[in-house]
Amino acid sequence: MIREYDALPSVPLKTGSTFVRPVQVFADRVKLSDPAISVMTDLNKVSVVSVRAKTPMDKANAKMIRYGVRMLLVLDDNEQVAGLLTASDVLGEKPMRFLQNMGGTHADIMVRDIMSTQRDLQVLKLSDVQSSQVGTIVVSLKKANRQHALVVAEGADGRQTVCGVFSITQIARQLGAQVQSFELARTFAEIEAVIPHA
């Protein structure tokens, strides 16, 4: 039976080869009344960029720049969510406060020293997201004063799995706002400026 098949020829893998990374295509324009799911990064379609808690902060920042993201999921040694690291954590006051309290140099700061820990994170349930609108997510992020929101699916046993991410910058772009800054208050102001059109 197997004799009917011929083996495929193989070739050496060339130096410098890369690999395919999945890309989620977002709608160019959305309205506040559109389904919230249309602005969510779906982790079933896109690989989340992650980092370990013991990683130096500068290395984590370089990873954000390389992948063009402003948030990294922080994983522990068991591949479970330990926290969240954002560009605001790296570029804001947290590193300076850490150095004032602990001493050392910038190079001594680890992700675990400035990240938002798992116990500090509030998440949205996928079941709630599926029945909400873009405007609801904007209001939720503004109320929480957060740039990002994690979305979790809950299993029958109550265990949570992070399955999506909302980014206020991504939402602003899809609403048609010209995002010039990554400052949170300014991003919300830019969204409010386009609301009559959204």
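That was protein one. Protein two is written in the same sequence-then-structure order:
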Amino acid sequence: MDPWSQPPAQPARGWLAAALALVLAAPAAGQSLRPSSASLARQNAQAKAHDFTFLRNAGHLRYFVDRGWLVPVVPNRDFRLKGASFPYARPEVRLFVVRLARQYRAACGERLVVTSLTRPRSHQPRHASAQSVHPTGMALDLRRSRKRACRRWLEKTLLYLEGRRVLEASYERWPPHYHVAVFPKPYARYVRSLASARRAAGRSHLVARGESLWQIARRYDTSIRLLKETNGLRGDVIRPGQVLRIPPGGG
């Protein structure tokens, strides 16, 4: 089928393709943000499982935008765009950017900077891998902050989400940035599961042994700052058996 008339997202081609995509999405042992051929393979497996088209040029991209298969990514108070030639992405990628940027700004006090989103093959840099999924609209690049605390928060969060098998992330050194390939369907399911967890918890959480404020904030899609304010905590120390109230308005 001609890709210009092909919808960007179709069900995976049977249970075998879905199973293969799930296996390839599993993070390797000794998980890190180091670029690897295995990571590229997992990204491509997800693109194929989603039946995504690799866009050829700007006209091809515009065709997808006009049909709503790619959506505008509009900056807000939590993030800005810098150098992104085509400010469009898959709807789930836009959702990821908005959610991550809100949490990032709450955690370290600065706006997230998105440097690249969808790039058709005609606009890929010369050094780009032939396996890059930027032409599918499921990838983005994030600027590396000068603040160590911001870098640590972002890297920890990306590794956490990679461990949940909803994305693949790597740190690229030239120029310094984080490359992220979001897996749309798994990520959408993950976001829905967070909403379900908040409803089931009745807006409170019983602290388990070994849990940290960071882990609880991630589970309920809120920030450490709001958790501490809601519960009158002055430090980061919590105890097993302690009941924490979950801040309203997460999501």
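The longest strand covers residues 167-173. Keep this in mind for the problem set.
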